[in-house]
Amino acid sequence: MRIIDAALNERVQQTALPGEPLLTIDCEWWQGIVLVVFRLAYTQGSGDGSMHRFSAVPIAAVVIIAFGQASNAADMPAKATRPAITSLPNWTGPYIGGSVGGAWSTTDWTFFNGATFEPISQNASSWVAGGQIGYLYQFDRRWVAGLELSWSGTNLKATSVSDTVADRLRESKISDLLLLTGRLGYASDNWLGYIKGGYANSKVGFDTFVASSGLRSSTSSERNGGWTVGGGIEYAFSPFVTAGVEYNFARINIADRDQSVSPGFVAPETVTGAHADIQTVWARLNFRLAPLMRSY
Description:
Elements: H1 6-15, H2 29-43, H3 49-75, E1 88-90, E2 93-112, E3 117-138, E4 143-161, E5 168-188, E6 191-210, E7 216-236, E8 241-258, E9 260-261, E10 270-288, E11 293-295
Antiparallel strand pairs: 1-11, 2-3, 2-10, 3-4, 4-5, 5-6, 6-7, 7-8, 7-9, 8-10
Helix pairs in contact: 2-3
């Protein structure tokens, strides 16, 4: 901006000291305004003009510097925004929950009544429902390990007609499934996929009946152990609630056992070479006893 206003120059000439030049300055627009204001202030008042002259100059210099810094700052490019730091849920902590779903079984056993061996294979299906408690530890940004104990009730019962003895029924029943397993999972944001394996235990019973009368001729019911493998997927809906779907396969090794024979029937009666294969698919809902925190 070039200040060449005629009226202003006339006023400046009237008040200027001898030998002072005409006010003609190349400057920014705001610098021009500041200079004009302070030039007028410089020429106002009575008395010795030198007082005004020396008091106005430093003030004008400060204002010009301040405006200059502000102008330079306004012209500077904005700093680049720092990229957002992503976070991942940390699955470490204890939990407790429940499950419900379906179960299927195949029970193979041989019945011996002291005279004949009768191989039997029975299939059953039923509901399954129970609960679980466990602990997870995330030892890496993605990898999670844990330990879980679960118990589920069921009614896997199958009855078939004897192939070797007339008027007889053979029945097997699995009433529960207990699992103690280790877990290894891979976490991806709120999702956790995992495999599991460990110890399995069930209460398995065998009964024989007289088909025509319904009388029980022999019975047994014991707990037997075995092994299990499985896997599932889980999703964290909140820091305290997760849900998922899980599959389990369990082999229960029953081996041999003696039946308790009812009065009036011939002893002994035994079950030999028995085992049961159990499969489950259930939905799970877990409540974390410590919130699912996010790690960076």
